[in-house]
Amino acid sequence: MTSSPTTFYSASAGSGKTYTLARDYLTLLFQSQFNNHYRKILAVTFTNKAVAEMKERVLEHLYNFGKQPVPDNSLGIFNHIKEITGLDDKDLANKAIKIHQRLLHDYSAFDIVTIDAFNHRILRTFAKDIDLPAGFEVELDTDSLINKAIQNLLARAGNDKKLTKKLVDFSLSKIDNNKSWDVAFDLMQISSLIKNENHYEYLKALEQKSSEDFEKLAQNLKLKNRGLKTHLKELAIGLIEKSKQQGLEPKDFKGGSRSIFNTIIKTSQEDLSVIPNTASIRDFIAGDLYAKNQKQHIKDGIDALRVDIADFGIAYRATYGHIKFHENIIKSIVPLSLLNELMHEINLIKKEEQVVPIYEFNGLLRNQIKDQPAPFVYERLGEKYRHYFIDEFQDTSRMQWENMIPLISNALQSIDDNGTSGTLMLVGDAKQSIYRWRGSDANQFLGLLEKNQLFELEKSNQTLEFNWRSYHNVIEFNNEFFKFYGDYLHSDIYKNLYQNYLHQKTTHKQGGYIQVDFLNNNDFVSSDDEDLITPYPPHVHQLIKNIIAQGFELGDICILVRKHTQGHELAQYLVKQDITVVSGDSLLVEASPRVRLLVEFMKMIHQPDQQALKLGFLLEYVQYHNIEQINTFIISHINLSLYDLLKVVFCDDAATMESAFAKAPLFKATEQTAQALELFNEQDLRLQSFLELVFEFSNGQDVSLSRFLEHWEKKKEKLSVPATPDPQAVQIMTIHKSKGLEFPVVIVPYSDSKMNASLKPTDWVNVNPAAYEGFENLYMSLSKDALFYPDQAQEVYNTHLQKTQMDHINGLYVAFTRAVEQLYVCCIDHPETKNQDESSLRHGQLLKRFLDNSTSWDKQDTDEVVSFQKGTLNKLSSLSHGKPAQELGNYKTHSSTSRADFSTRRGMLWASGVQESINKGNLLHDYISQIESIIDLPAVIIKIERDDYISSHLKQELIDTLKLMISPSYFEKYYLPELNILNERGILTPDGKKFIPDRLIINDREVTIIDYKTGAQLEKHRDQLDYYAVLLQQMNYKIKEKVLIYTDELKELIWN
User: Fold this and answer.
1) Which residue has the higher pLDDT, 177 or 744?
2) Helices 115-125 and 398-413: crossing angle, nearest 10°?
3) Which of 308, 418, 369, 275 is nearest to 784 (CA)?
4) Are residues 980 and 1033 in the same domain?
């Protein structure tokens, strides 16, 4: 750490960022005389995975510091802390043990959190101030919220005349542009603006506009265009008359039928098809109007018009730009007006359902706390942080940063009781900023990085120079290529980044291999549509075979793509070649044959008269059971009644299954169906995730089968399970998903997109409200026409091009730096055209230029591929990236809910007499979780008696209840010493969620599930245990019994 209050770490890929964060965080803990100094530290990052990794690192190091000798993986930080603090080995170890214990017992104050979680906490404290309901829910599924608003909006059509006209106009404009008339799809697309923080301020301003305001703007722009076209037409007609007076004809001008004069004629007919950068317009202005061998009297006639022609050319260029700019804006007016209506519908849903979509967090906070003094915010939070760590700062949006400034500046500019000021540590790498589409701003990081001070205080810039991830050749290639690429960037700021913040030093890891392949283009028709079938899949397959021949496993290989369609093309091909693949498609829940069979059954039961649904079930059934005579089976069963078909499938259980969803709760019926269809015979994480979806949906108000099936249709395309390392499967993922990861071998195909390519780019432009009916900002699509727009619009376009270039180079940088040992890059060999504009170069062409100018590469040239290689083809590391999944054994630990050291927050809760019944239930739950057998009861009673937070009469009630519970008259059978017990052992689901049964009794592979409840018996209590049972069955356990123990009345409910 440095002595400056603010430290900026530039952390390029593989530079040990997490190690540095953990080291500096731990150093702060040991510099304090208190063992709970973590309460004064807030560390924020962007993903739950990053939070878990950081917390794990801190706890692991603290635990290791208490060992003798200190393990190697913690020794470097241990010695660093010794040097900074002056503590000797023994004192440091003792302090580490104390801090570790305090952290575990005060875990809720261990504030390493996602930035969204922290914002949520602040938002809760200000809910009343901003008119949010006290119990508001955070809506994470924003697409479902927006889709519901779209349906509500469309439902108003026919009754609301103004809205109906907008929808009709929108549909007609789509038809005119040869697009589908379906407005719902386009509304969903334009609604993406709502979720993107970059558009927040603009949309807030639009909310104040009425339908009439939008109509006036459209009329105003159309009127302006009519005037501009008339003006050009009059200029053109005047020139034509003057040319006639000079006896001139169109053929007299240079270019003949494509001459300047032909452009003038077109303009006189209001035809503005000639783009101002074409030769004829340039000739207008340059004055190159006739051929050298033209007759003299014709030259004299044209020379007489030279000034008029030049004036016309200048006027044409300027007027063309204004007209096209206005036409561009006009096209966006109806969609924006509809978006305004949509935002109104969303607000109604938010109010009705008491939800706040997560995309609104930053904006709501900004409006609330920007004028609040920091002490007031701290008072609301109940915490005052003195030290701030912000990870991945290049991904921090402007609003997120501005919302934290009051708190951070207060910490830095004030001192605590010990006379010390706060600190700020920012870590990031603008080269890895690839989330601009969701609000991140690399310019913010670069701007702060270049400042000498922050909050009027000294700032220290530190660069993590070494790449600890990759081997020497991989590092050197990335150093050299991206410096070369940086020279092609239009922005001086971005050029400076790749010139001065790129180079990394190598470590002792010598060697490594890079191969760049340029594939023959003869069999592939070049097109802007890069989703066409390409030569990449067979080439990638050959690369995989070559890599495996070196001793690597499939799990060591990761293929990185820009688009899901590319990953899908590769996955389909590789699977046909018997290569096991883990990709986004394979991880989709709906890709599971078990899930598909279960869903088709649910659809058929819901609408038994629909023959198509019966066919859908039969098709999934024959595939799941590998029935060879598919046609014969389907033909013989398709015309059976539902009951007769169920008799074939379920035999004696046909009647039960026919009425399952009519009689039982949704989750229970789904679980029962899955069991009857024999879907639990093998572990399937996707089936487990599907059942979890049913379970969560069952907590809603409307849990009918019909509503769930509608919910499933909305969810199925995105619901997936996380990938787990598999040594026998190649991973395919998008570059965005790969950020923060590393792989022994990385293949990057499809590396030939244009360096300025952008999909339907749009942006906002500032305008003079007096000239545009009170609108300060207008929304426009970005195309090359913008080069002729008014200056402010041209600036928006040029800035967009610069940022797009940055997006592309950063994406490549992230992809290429994931490789540890070997990197393979594949491009289509696109020859450069004569006088090709550098801004239109493809990445493959840049790579070719780079490699052609280098002498240190081997080159192989065949009919199919031109290949450049550097390094030696051999596996260097003995480690394997893919790891086989392991089943957790039945091991025992002290309960994670041990209350040996209560947080001080609990004291505040206990002080309330109103809470007594709740407290008793919670405390009883805490203490019973510490009892594995009757032998543990005396020790727990002693703990209760020593608990200063509990009143005497409540202590006695707890002790009496525990004694009764574990007595022979009640539940002693569940607490016998010979039983194998797991108390509050978490079950982690594929998507990272954790479920914790209170007590499991395990005998071989047979389990009894026990949960403790207070209050009335509720159906959801049974559902909860039923879901636990499904999770355990997925782990290949057999369920013996499910037991609910109601502690108020000491009653048990048993079923299986």
Assistant:
1) 744
2) 70
3) 275
4) yes
Helix (H) or strand (E) holding 443: helix 442-450
Residue spans of alpha helices (H) in 911-951: 916-928, 937-945
User: By C-alpha distance, which of 993, 992, 1005 is closest to 1032?
Assistant: 1005
Answer yes or no: are the C-beta atoms of 32 and 84 closer than 8 Å: no
Whether 316 maps to a domain, the answer reads yes
Beta-bridge mates of residue 461: 8
Cα separation, 788 vs 491, whole angstroms: 20
pLDDT at 382 over 90: no
Give Cα separations from 708 to 467, 670, 924, 1006 (angstroms). 49, 11, 37, 32
Residue 1006 reports pLDDT greater than 90: yes
Residue-range definition of the domain harbouring residue 215:
141-353
**Strand intervals (E) in 443-549:** 453-454, 457-464, 513-519
Count of Cβ atoms closer than 10 Å to residue 302 Cβ: 22
Is residue 211 domain-shared with residue 348, that is, in the same domain? yes
What is the tally of structural domains in the chain? 5
Nearest to 923 by CA among 893, 894, 953: 953
- The pLDDT value given to residue 910: 35
pLDDT in tens, 730-772: 999 999 999 989 999 999 999 988 888 877 789 999 999 999 9
pLDDT tens digits along 403-450? 888 888 888 888 877 778 899 999 999 999 988 877 788 888 888 887
Assess whether 842 and 730 both reside in one domain: yes
Q: Nearest CA to 761 among 326, 173, 198, 144?
A: 198
How far CA 525 is from CA of 174, 533, 537, 749, 786, in Å, comes to: 29, 9, 16, 17, 30
**Amino acid identity for residue 964 in this structure:** L
Encode pLDDT of 440-487 as tens digits.
888 888 888 877 777 778 888 899 999 999 999 999 999 999 999 999
Label residue 176 by pLDDT band (50, 70, 90). Answer: low
- Nearest-CA neighbor of 795 among 824, 753, 767, 768? 767
Whether 920 is in a domain gets the answer yes
CATH number at residue 908: 3.90.320.10
Say how many residues make up the chain. Answer: 1056
Binding-site residues for ATP: 11-18
Mean per-residue pLDDT over the chain, rounded: 85
In a domain, 133, yes or no: no
Instruction: Tell me the CA distances in angstroms from 1011 to 609, 898, 969, 988, 996, one per residue in order.
Output: 42, 18, 19, 18, 10
Same domain assignment for residues 49 and 145: no
pLDDT at res. 177: 61
474 lies in some domain: no
Which pLDDT score is estimated for 527? 42
Identify whether the C-beta of residue 791 lies closer than 8 Å to the C-beta of residue 783. no
Q: Residue 112: what residue type? A: I
How is residue 432 annotated by DSSP?
G
Torsion over CA of 906, 911, 915 and 921, rounded to 10 degrees?
50
Which residue numbers belong to the known binding site? 11-18
Q: What pLDDT, on a 0 to 100 scale, did the predictor assign at position 434?
A: 87
**Dihedral class, residue 245 (left if φ above 0, else alpha if ψ from -120 to 50, else beta):** alpha
Domain identity same for 245 and 372: no
Residues 164 and 305 in one domain: yes
Answer yes or no: do 928 and 986 share one domain: yes
From CA 15, how far away is CA 676, in angstroms rounded? Answer: 53
CATH code where residue 502 lies: 3.40.50
Q: Residue 466: helix, strand or coil by DSSP?
A: strand
- Considering the domain architecture, whether residues 1034 and 910 belong to the same structural domain is answered as yes
